[in-house]
Amino acid sequence: MSQSENRSKDSWMRKAAYLYIDGFKNMGRLGKMLWIIILIKLFVFFVVLKLFFFPNYLNTNFETEQERADHVTNELIDVINKNK
Amino acid sequence: MDDLMSVVDWSRGQFALTAMYHWLFVPLTLGLGLIVAIMETIYLKTKDERWKRITKFWMSIFGVNFAIGVATGIILEFQFGTNWSNYSWFVGDIFGAPLAIEGLMAFFLEATFLAVMFFGWNKVSPRFHLASTWLTIIGASLSALWILVANAWMQHPVGMYFNPNTVRNEMYDFWALVFSPVATNKFFHTVSSGWVLGSIFVIGVSAWYLLKKRDTLLALRSMNVAAWVGLAGICTVLYTGDGSAVQVFQKQPMKLAAMEGVYQGSTKHGLVLFGILNPDKKSYTDQEKPFLFEVKIPSLLSLLATRHTDGFVPGIDDLMKGGFPQLNQKGELITAPSVYDKMMQGKVAVQALSDYKKAQAKGDSSMMTVNRKILEENFHYFGYGYVDSPEQLVPHVPLVFYSFHIMILLGGYFFVFFILILFLLNRDRLQNMKWLLWICVWTIPLGYLCLEAGWVVAEVGRQPWVIQDIMPTFAAISKVGSGIVQTTFWMFAAIFTLLLIADVGIILKQIKKGSDQNN
Q1: Which residues span the domain enclosing A3?
Q2: pLDDT category of residue B44 using cuts at 50, 70 and 90
Q3: Where is pLDDT greater, at B519 or B162?
Q4: What is the domain range of residue B382?
Q5: Beta-carbon separation of A57 and B478 below 8 A
Q6: How many domains is chain B partitioned into structurally?
Q7: Do A15 and A27 belong to one domain?
């Protein structure tokens, strides 16, 4: 890559970075409050709920894909055994 | 069985609660986003700074709703993995693809251009800013597209085959999913209903300004844009709603029967414009009349569903007994099987899966081939293998019926409403009609009611199916205790109620501030 191409890329990336940096720096009260709400919400969703209340049932209880497939198979054909 | 039903019911309730709260935020994002983009386009064309001020005001409301609503849908995906693990495994590849694309599109389009939209005023060129605004709303609409493609597949599964080795449905035709008539109708119907809600919201807020005799220019200009968007939206809703009626008739006739309270089918069937269901009618087998009172438009339901005024629309009883002419999945005219035939085929399919697995364990390839063939021949009714009684196949008729009629009546009202607003704005008479301005304000909750009713029709109407004819809710559930599902149900209720209170509170504060003090 030539030097001029590098410079133009840097300049574009720097502009994009400053858009965000300045945007957050000069954010008004409303924007800050909304970001706090978003961060709290994401924490509650991904840390509290996902980790403690919503484990993936198949991934947690079975180690391999085959075990998961076997479990679902048994669940799906169990109705036949019940009716016998 | 009781405990299983309890888990199923609580899991369904939890999913419904989450989806309905999520659906409070999404349509306003879709509708208000479009209105903001149009306003900014007008600003760029006219160079009138007052349009810029108006755009920025509505953009701030859009931002609040977006920020509070963002990621509320992710909870639904958590629930798939925890509460609906059989379902998640069974459909993994098909459901996963649209949702993965949705995640990527939502992240790259919305997150990237949303930042330019809010931070980019005076930082990027006006044209680039406008492009970012449009790309944000296009990104939001495309996100909706993939969610709705996944949902439409559940209502009308196409483009896949069932692999008994992996016990999964595997996609062989991605475009069949995307361009399924159910998906295309659902997408345009849903997105345009968002335009309607966004328009109602802008008109209602603007009417409040006119009542308070403040921000008059903002109010009148906003109302004009919103009324045109609303009219375009409601026309699209009506057109795609008509298309959806045909799809529902062909693919989910039980849903259509519940929507209209049809127990006994007939040719030249009328559409119930207004009706009160008989609460004593408990089952399709009893002899009670379905309605206490009804106003019908003759032959209209036949016309809407079959495109012929003398077309036959089956009722719940007909769907149970079969024997009427019906189009199959390939579009061929067949005699509809009875529900007992379907249950028999379903049980044959489940038995074939069981036998296939036994043969596989023994390494008996000839029996594997035989059972795989039986399974494939009967797979289209696989889910009926889990049904014990035909009663399980009837959705909650009163809930579906009343939701459908609330949606229809409010849709008709919105059509008249937008035309009236445009007419009065054109005559410069709206400002002095206080009573009508108050109606505009109170139409906002009616917009939300209409959209939630539409969700109930689509989702409660298809019960008991998570995948139409292939998997009922009670076969899709995980082996989890109902206690944990109940706990998380109430946690969600609390979290989403708090979010809703925050959303309404902050939006009201912004509205009270108005455009002059808007930052």
Answers
A1: 1-53
A2: very high
A3: B162
A4: 339-390
A5: yes
A6: 3
A7: yes
